[in-house]
Specification:
- The structure is a single chain.
- The chain is an alpha/beta fold and about 240 residues long.
- Helix content is about 35%, strand content about 20%.
- The protein contains nine helices and nine strands.
- Helix 8 (about 215-225) packs across helix 9.
Length: about 240
């Protein structure tokens, strides 16, 4: 049970506006050993870190990310919705986060947000950026679009992939093998200890999301999860330190 990855979900999103450089830096400060983020593509092929397809919830903009140019997206305020002290935080480009992490040993989980809009060519662009920063060994690409994950694996067999899903997937380790995925990014209630054990026997690890209750964190640590995605990396860091993992 060594070195469970403590993934800060969209950065330290309990205390900072999600998917901003402030949130990513704070996550690292709070003990995260991994960062989870979401990537979408602008109209001119820029890669930006934002969860929703629509700009409304987390920025002062409106409309869809896909309809903005990179420069338009980068001008938006992505902080003041969360708190006045974060006014002026921007939507980051993927490259900004890669630059922050390139000289660290942090694991980066990039979720491709290509379920609603397919963003043709996004897989190639993300992989090119990851390789350019020398991060292939430390990146996990995840998506709810499993066709996209299979495509990623064919383009970059050296980069790990993680299958995002809700609950009720039957023998998910067999399914993972069918698209050569490395990890199961399951909604945490879909993760039972016997599943973790059987998946491990097939060489597949679990990175459950989004785990914010300390008791649930403890249960998943005990079950042998390889990583845990949380809004509270400080809480998870404390539990991992106490258990020596």
């Amino acid at each position: 049970m060594n070195h469970i990855i403590n993934f800060a979900h969209r950065g330290a999103s309990a205390v900072c506006p999600e998917n901003t450089m402030a949130a990513f830096r704070k996550g690292l400060e709070l003990g995260a050993t991994g960062i989870e983020t979401d990537v979408q593509m602008t109209s001119d092929g820029g890669l930006v870190l934002i969860h929703d397809e629509n700009l409304k919830r987390t920025t002062n903009g409106s409309g869809y990310v896909k309809d903005k140019t990179l420069s338009e997206a980068l001008e938006l305020d992505a902080g003041s919705w969360f708190g006045a002290e974060f006014t002026g935080e921007r939507i980051p480009a993927l490259e900004e986060l890669l630059d922050l992490l390139k000289d660290r040993d942090t694991i980066l989980n990039i979720e491709l947000k290509n379920g609603m809009f397919f963003y043709p060519g996004m897989e190639e662009k993300v992989i090119a950026a990851v390789r350019e920063y020398g991060m292939s060994e430390r990146v996990v690409l995840s998506s709810f679009n499993h066709y996209s994950l299979a495509h990623c694996k064919s383009l970059a067999p050296e980069i790990r992939t993680g299958i995002l899903y809700g609950e009720g997937l039957y023998r998910p380790w067999d399914y993972a093998a069918s698209l050569q995925a490395d990890a199961l990014h399951a909604y945490h209630y879909a993760v039972l200890p016997e599943f973790v054990t059987e998946a491990a026997e097939h060489g597949i690890v679990y990175h459950p999301w989004t785990v914010n209750e300390p008791e649930r964190m403890k249960a998943l640590i005990e079950a042998g999860a390889s990583g845990i995605i949380t809004d509270y990396p400080d809480v998870l860091a404390g539990l991992l330190a106490a258990k020596g993992v």
